[in-house]
């Protein structure tokens, strides 16, 4: 009867140990789940903060780009106006120079032909 009593005690101890192990496993699994959720929350919070910083940065420098485009457009218009003005002022001179050069043609024998003869 004493051996039967000892076996019964061992079985109860084994059941108790398996309950403790199961409880420890479930506790560990729960801690891992909680850690993942907390890490995910921190990631989302950080993402929101960085996204807001990016939006503020973009707003800060987006205005400069628009101003640069306007400045470049104004400068381009000024240069076009200057080129047009120079063209109008010099077109008659250029036409006269071309006509004079074409009209004052002096025919000459090419240097290679002179050598051959």
Automatic annotation (TrEMBL):
Q: Which GO terms describe its molecular function?
A: ATP hydrolysis activity; proton-transporting ATPase activity, rotational mechanism
Q: From the UniProt annotation, give the residues forming the signal peptide.
A: none
Statement: the UniProt record of this protein carries the keyword Ion transport:
yes
Q: Keyword set for this entry?
A: Coiled coil, Hydrogen ion transport, Ion transport, Transport
User: What InterPro entries has UniProt attached to this entry?
Assistant: V-ATPase_G
Q: Which residues form a coiled coil?
A: 22-56
List the GO cellular component terms.
vacuolar proton-transporting V-type ATPase, V1 domain
Q: Which NCBIfam families match?
A: V_ATP_synt_G (TIGR01147)
Q: What is the role of the protein in this entry?
A: Subunit of the V1 complex of vacuolar(H+)-ATPase (V-ATPase), a multisubunit enzyme composed of a peripheral complex (V1) that hydrolyzes ATP and a membrane integral complex (V0) that translocates protons. V-ATPase is responsible for acidifying and maintaining the pH of intracellular compartments and in some cell types, is targeted to the plasma membrane, where it is responsible for acidifying the extracellular environment.
**The family this protein is said to belong to:** Belongs to the V-ATPase G subunit family.
The subunit structure is: V-ATPase is a heteromultimeric enzyme made up of two complexes: the ATP-hydrolytic V1 complex and the proton translocation V0 complex.
User: Mind telling me what this protein is named?
Assistant: V-type proton ATPase subunit G
Biological source species: Boothiomyces macroporosus
């Amino acid at each position: 009867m004493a051996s039967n009593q000892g076996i019964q005690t061992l079985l109860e101890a084994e059941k108790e140990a398996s309950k403790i192990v199961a409880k420890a496993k479930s506790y560990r699994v729960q801690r891992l789940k909680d850690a993942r959720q907390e890490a995910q929350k921190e990631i989302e919070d950080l993402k929101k903060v960085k996204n807001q910083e990016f939006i503020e940065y973009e707003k800060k420098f987006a205005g400069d780009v628009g101003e640069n485009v306007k400045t470049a457009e104004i400068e381009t218009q000024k240069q076009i106006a200057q080129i047009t003005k120079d063209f109008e002022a010099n077109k008659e001179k250029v036409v006269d120079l071309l006509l004079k050069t074409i009209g004052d043609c002096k025919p000459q024998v090419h240097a290679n032909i002179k050598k051959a003869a």
